[in-house]
Amino acid sequence: MKFKNKLILLILLIILLGILLVALDSPYLHALMGDTSDLESMTIVNDNRSNLSIVVTGDLMFGRNTPAVLSLDESPFRYISNVTSGSDILLVNTENPFTTSSNAVKGDVPLKASPEYIPLINGTNGTVISANANNHLFDYGVEGMRDSMKNLDANGITHIGVGENKQEASKPAVIEKNGYKITIFNYMDSDNFQEYSQEVMPIAKDDSPGYSAWDDETSPQQIKEAKENGSDFVLVYMHYGNEYSRSPNDMQINISHKAIDAGADAVVGAHAHVTQGVELYKNKPIYYNLGNTIFDQSRSDTHVGYIVGFDLDKTNVTATLYPIYVSGFLPQFMDSSGANALLDELNPQCDSMERTDDGRGVIHYSLDNETTSKFSLFNSK
Questions:
Q1: β strands within 258-371, DSSP E
Q2: Going by C-beta distance under 8 Å and a sequence separation of 6 or more, which residues neighbour residue 264?
């Protein structure tokens, strides 16, 4: 009996010794002994971010016939302001330079708008970003581009997509708000506009001004670096596709997939002036073309469009497609019948997009990256 008791005691001592050896290697015990170096590398999820909303519009143009319905005292977004005005970030595609120049370098359909209308871009109480990598920003040459950038700066509007050189033109907008780091890139597919000379539609080079052209090597690398540098949400706004085509072409699909492969969390497109469909690729949405938002075109198919809202809740995103129609050059929300008709006609169709009773298309998805913060139980001092 005594031998049995001694054996049990020996086993207990061995177990206690094992526990002690594990504890001696614990960073918490080290910290109690004054060594906190091991704790400094420990992380726990500590996500204090509040919600953040991003709204993206289609093509805006404040020149030609549009001034007839513009008032400096009324927002052109007033009929859809319940979505735009509450956004933390409003991203728009500005299809005209804001310039008083009369030196048009583009012979077909040169567009421009008076700088006095720039404040009307501000359809939100948050940050406004003007995407300018498009086929009209240089209609009045480099002079018109420089005027536009200067006038946007004077009105506190962030601008992306063009610049004095390639580095400046391809530089993204980086916004840190509500605990998130948001990065927005703006590129144009130069293959779509090969008929235009470098003078009429210049691609930014290392030592010359122009627009930011998508490049299959450098553009994905930029996106990848943005994610590696801590961006919570990377959005790529593309100017691509064929005008008045209701379906994306092969180049659009290829570019969009490469952007998401590189780390983009969403791709949004403009230029067609009509709507194109939605794809969920690797659990990230692609909105191939939003159509017009504020424009004076007469074709009936250019009077139908949509805007997209991205609502971020930590690592969860709700992306909402809001169908609109352009009446009197200004956007209004469709009723449920018209909205559902638009959703039915989108090409491609996205099976993962749910529909609300009022005809909005909703996609829920998650971001890959997580926010972690260093945490220490002890004060090393």
A1: 266-270, 278-281, 284-287, 292-294, 304-313, 316-327, 330-333, 354-355, 361-366
A2: 185, 223, 234, 235, 236, 284
Tell the residue number behind the tokens 């008929």, with chain if given: 195
What's 49-366's CATH class?
alpha beta
Cα-only R_g, the chain: 26
The H-or-E segment that residue 182 falls in is: strand 180-188
Structure token pair of residue 28: 């918490």
Q: CA 202 from chain center: how many Å?
A: 24
Residues 6+ apart with CB under 8 A from 341: none
Any idea where the domains of the chain sit in the sequence? 2-41, 49-366
- 218-276 pLDDT, tens per residue? 999 999 999 999 999 999 999 999 999 999 999 999 999 999 999 999 999 999 999 99
pLDDT bin (cut points 50, 70, 90) of residue 155 is very high
